[in-house]
Design a protein that fits this description.
This protein is mainly alpha-helical. It contains seven helices and two strands, in the order ααββααααα.
Length: 130
């Protein structure tokens, strides 16, 4: 299962706690509660099962590495859909990262509801500082 957090949730909670929320959502979507969830990192989401945190787990545990690949593919597909809906930001190529081209598009085209207000360029544009 895949879980996500919205831009609004990320802004309200911060990226760490929004990630915890997304992990919880993914686990809660499973048809059965797992006996153990492996998490890449050192923070465990609140889950109805045992959790083991593994720093660098994507390199040492095949299942975490596989989950990282699935998450990246899902994210890339979401970004490609956003790119089709909001052309000019280069989301299909930059996956939403603040590349120079993406920052230039923000200045030229403005901020969308899908941009995170906590990021410097977006925050400055929303405040009218750029």
């Amino acid at each position: 299962a895949v879980g996500a957090a919205s831009v609004t949730e990320i802004g309200r909670l911060n990226i760490l706690w929004a990630s915890m929320l997304a992990m919880r959502r993914a686990v809660m979507r499973l048809p059965v509660v797992p006996g153990l969830v492996l998490v890449d990192g050192n923070w465990a989401p609140e889950l109805p099962c045992a959790v083991r945190c593994i720093v660098g787990g994507d390199a040492s545990e095949a299942v975490i590495g596989a989950a990282s690949i699935v998450a990246k593919v899902v994210r890339d597909r979401c970004m490609a859909r956003l790119d089709a809906r909001y052309p000019g930001y280069g989301w299909a190529e930059n996956a939403g990262y603040g590349t120079p081209a993406h920052r230039a598009a923000l200045q030229a085209l403005g901020v969308t509801a899908h941009h995170r207000a906590g990021f410097g360029t977006v925050r400055r544009l929303m405040a009218g500082d750029d």
